[in-house]
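pls read this stuff:
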Amino acid sequence: MTAATSSGSSDDALASREFDGLVNFRDLGGIPVRGGAIRTATLFRSDSLSYASVADAAYLTDDLGVATIVDLRADAEVAEFGRGPLESAPVAYVSLPVVDGPTVDTRSDFYFQMLGANGEALADLVRRLSTPAVLPAIVHCHIGCDRTGAVSAMLLGLAGADDDAICVDYARSSRANDAIRERAIERRRSLGLPIKDRAYYDAWDPRPEIMAATLSLVAREWGDMAGWARTYGLTDVEVAAFRNAIVDPNSSTEAT
């Protein structure tokens, strides 16, 4: 079994949980925000649930009570890899393929571009996550770093997390580097494709400075994530509803 990465601020049972297939799953609960912290076991991020085993799926639905899956993968990825055992579970499935824009030079530019190119769809996601019946929810892409990282940064920013907390969460995906690399190598081997060298797989390492640069671009363009939200049609009332849904005001880990 593979130990999933954890925020270190969730309950001990989740933090020590091992998965058969998921390597980059974690609870965003406990991350400090203005006025409290993200509620535990309310909003999760992950690598693709197509890798989940039947036991993994049962844990997510039966123990964590997951009600909604938000899939950021492109239609072609879903067709190739499938949705895994949760496809037949009584869980709402939201397909939100994150589209790419023009080719950019850095991953920070890619994340920034992603927030703009998918602004209206992501604003709709915020509205959806404001509904208590939709939660707990999992947001995932393929490896759970780039698309999931940018969307998680947006959600955390709107919830009131500061830049440092967002960058720390983003960088936690580096704990899954080895498992993600081995999974990718095994897939290429099974398809008879040439095996790429280690540097190729290390290039995506989610270093905190990458997300810090992304947030600087957000600040330059929109002021902050609240400014991004207003640009794409979210009202202050809607953002407040989202915060109320995922923030625990009684937490002692409030951001300063």
